[in-house]
């Protein structure tokens, strides 16, 4: 009995000496194994994107017409495309494109949406009415349709694709954050800040925005998966990044469609990469929502 008590006490003492962030990660891993697996896949994708220069076996842009559409073999593990380029190397470099556009677009859309949502909730009245009707107009269009419209106006290119993906995500985040900000607006410390004469900007950015970080982070992770999928869709349609940039959606169009039966590996492996990335971000986003939302905690 004494041995059991000593062992339990020792475990508790060791747990208390662990850094706080490590305890949080450990608890999340125990409670959300699926979310943890998604986070591991995301970290792996990030490492691949960072180390692509060192781990890619070939130059992703090098064309070798004598090795066109080689099936997977010992030299080219995932085969080659219609230009003789190594598919594995292009997949590794394509993770950079997916993360660059996905992170940039989701961060831009979620951040602008969060600010709009807090401003709308704080001022209320006619300001809230006008902003929300504008958000309703944007929400009436599907993501892909709105992104296509923005690309049609701005043109193709990495920067324009980021803006095109961020625009339809902004009203979705604004609506979610506004619902949380409405409750925060009625909090006593907001009334105290007004009574002390603080300006609107200070109240919004110093007192309200930090308190809507939970829904903001949840929307950010959800948007990452949608942004990667949208980027792949736009590139597949020829409205995203252009050749010879290594991008997963770009690898699915053109020759991959034309030679689907003759060289199926040209479409299978990019499709699997897109599916794995979207699946990982969705798993992590759902688990993060459960962990941060008090109403969903067990």
Relevant terms:
298 residues; mainly alpha; MetI-like fold; 14 helices
Radius of gyration: 24 Å
Which stretches are poorly predicted, pLDDT < 50 over at least 5 residues? none
CATH names the topology as: MetI-like fold
| Main β-sheet description | none
Helix content: over 70%
CATH architecture type: Orthogonal Bundle
Tally the structural domains. Answer: 1
How many beta-strand segments?
A: 0
CATH class: Mainly Alpha
Average pLDDT for all residues: 83
Separate helix tally? 14
Name of the CATH superfamily? MetI-like
Task: Describe the protein's architecture and organization.
Helix 8 packs antiparallel against helix 11 and helix 9 runs antiparallel to helix 10 (200-208). It contains 14 helices and no strands. The mean pLDDT is 83. It has one domain (33-60, 83-296): MetI-like fold, CATH 1.10.3720. Helices cover 74% and strands 0% of the residues. It starts with a helix and ends in a 6-residue tail after the last helix. The protein has helices at residues 2-17, 20-31, 33-50, 52-55, 87-123, 125-139, 143-154, 158-185, 188-195, 200-208, 213-236, 248-252, 255-258, 265-292. By secondary structure, the protein is mostly helical.
Short description:
By secondary structure, the protein is mostly helical. The chain has 14 helices and no strands. 74% of the residues lie in helices and 0% in strands.
């Amino acid at each position: 009995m004494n041995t059991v008590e000593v062992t339990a006490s020792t475990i508790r003492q060791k747990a208390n000496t662990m850094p706080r962030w490590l305890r949080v990660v450990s608890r999340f891993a125990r409670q959300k194994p699926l979310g943890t697996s998604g986070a591991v896949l995301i970290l792996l994708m990030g490492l691949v994107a960072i180390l692509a220069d060192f781990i890619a076996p070939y130059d992703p842009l090098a064309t070798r017409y004598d090795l066109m559409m080689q099936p997977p073999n010992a030299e080219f593990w995932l085969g080659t495309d219609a230009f003789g380029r190594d598919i594995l190397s292009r997949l590794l470099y394509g993770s950079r494109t997916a993360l660059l556009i996905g992170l940039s677009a989701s961060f831009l859309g979620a951040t602008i949406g969060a600010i709009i949502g807090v401003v709308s909730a704080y001022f209320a009245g006619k300001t809230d009415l006008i902003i929300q009707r504008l958000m309703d107009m944007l929400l009436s269009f599907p993501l892909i349709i709105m992104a296509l419209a923005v690309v049609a106006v701005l043109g193709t290119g990495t920067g324009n694709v980021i803006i095109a993906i961020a625009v339809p995500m902004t009203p979705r985040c604004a609506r979610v954050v506004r619902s949380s900000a409405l409750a925060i607006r009625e909090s006593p410390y907001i009334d105290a800040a007004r009574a002390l004469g603080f300006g609107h900007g200070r109240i919004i950015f110093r007192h309200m925005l930090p308190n809507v970080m939970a829904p903001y982070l949840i929307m950010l992770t959800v948007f990452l998966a949608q942004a990667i999928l949208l980027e792949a869709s736009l590139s597949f349609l020829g409205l995203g990044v252009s050749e010879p940039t290594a991008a997963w959606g770009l690898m699915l169009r053109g020759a991959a469609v034309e030679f689907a039966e003759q060289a199926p590996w040209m479409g299978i492996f990019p499709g699997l990469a897109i599916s794995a990335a979207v699946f990982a971000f969705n798993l992590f986003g759902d688990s993060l929502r459960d962990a941060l939302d008090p109403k969903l905690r067990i």
